[in-house]
Amino acid sequence: MTAAVDLAVRLSQASVKKAWDVYSIFDWPEDLDPSEHWYMSPEMISIYGTEVYGDLNETEQKRLSFYELVNLFSFVLLGERLVNEGMTHRMYRKATVGAITQYLHHFVDEENKHMVMFAKFCNDYAKGVYPEKKMVLPREYAEGEEDIAFYCCVLIVEEIGDVYNLKMMSDDRIHPLVAHINKVHHIDEARHLSFGRQYVSELFADYSSRWSKEELVTFQTWLSDYLASAWRDFYNPSVYRDAGLENAYGVREMALASSTCREMRTGVSSKIVNFFLDNGLLAEAPEL
Questions:
Q1: Residue 205 and residue 113: Cα distance in Å, rounded?
Q2: What is the DSSP string of 146-166?
Q3: How many CB atoms sit inside 10 A of residue 189's CB?
Q4: pTM of the model
Q5: Residue 194 located in a structural domain
Q6: Cα 9 from chain centroid?
Q7: How many domains, in total, are found in the chain?
Q8: Which one, of 214, 216, 194, 195, lies nearest residue 205 by Cα?
Q9: Is residue 31 part of a domain?
Q10: HSE (CB half, 13 Å, CA atoms) of 8?
Q11: How far apart are CA 193 and CA 270, in angstroms?
Q12: 75: helix, coil or strand?
């Protein structure tokens, strides 16, 4: 029995024990004022530490934090939608061991609950979910590479999101509903991340040993580029526009070029980047 299979058995048991009802766990206010509370920890706002952010008064900063949260919830929701599509596609395949498939059922169930809670927040209190703007181009895969790439994408969404969860679930400055959502999400994601790290490391160790040097370099280049592109979704002109900032696209370009913002991206990504480096999925840390 591989470590991933053994882990999947234990995680399935934990998922059953910690099951929750998405429709009753939260107390949803009738409405929320975007300018009245902090909705994201200020230090996690995409342009925190820049001159543009410093020029905003506290009410404007709080309004920005609201739309930044809607963007974060949209990013995670859309990522989890792809997770569910990919997970269900991988269930009951010959190569997927029974215990793994059993845990994937819990994984999908929990991700669907997350999508419900994120969508409710975005739809009830904002204009809805911010749409995804990525375009996925088809490409050829080495043996096993497509599955490894899929689970790496899952890890990136969940690792980055969990850094925000951990910060906001215990931040008494932000709205209590938001803190509660982040805590509930983190509890499930801790299991998902534990499984994902173990499964990716085993898949990569197995298949990459059969790849040519060129195939390995191609994968590592793709992963580096994907991680960098994921961060671009956090600098959403629609967020800046909805928050009342002028020249929304200019703000985005400023933030992407800012050394302060780059330092934040690097810090938030450090755990997942180190995992990829330690397991050989990356040859060097990407410039984010």
A1: 32
A2: HHHHHHHHHHHHHHHHHHHHH
A3: 24
A4: 0.93
A5: yes
A6: 24
A7: 1
A8: 216
A9: no
A10: 20
A11: 15
A12: helix
Measure the CA angle with vertex 41, ends 35 and 47; round to 5°.
80
Domain limits at 227?
A: 3-8+39-278
CATH number at residue 192: 1.10.620.20
Q: Tell whether 160 is covered by a domain.
A: yes
Amino acid identity, residue 130?
Answer: Y
Burial grade of 90 (CB within 10 A; 0-12, 13-18, 19 or more): middle
Cα→Cα distances 147→96, 121, 152, 194, Å:
11, 32, 9, 17
Q: Can you give the length of the chain in residues? A: 288
CB count in 10 Å sphere of residue 200: 23
The answer to whether residue 169 sits within a structural domain is yes
**Residue 144 to residue 152: CA distance in whole angstroms:** 13
Give the DSSP letter of residue 37. S
Across the range 175-195, mean pLDDT stands at: 96
What would the pLDDT profile of 88-122 be if each residue is shown by its tens digit?
A: 888 877 656 688 888 999 999 999 999 999 999 99
b/e for 37-51, b at 16 or more Cβ within 10 A? bbbbbbebbbbbbbe
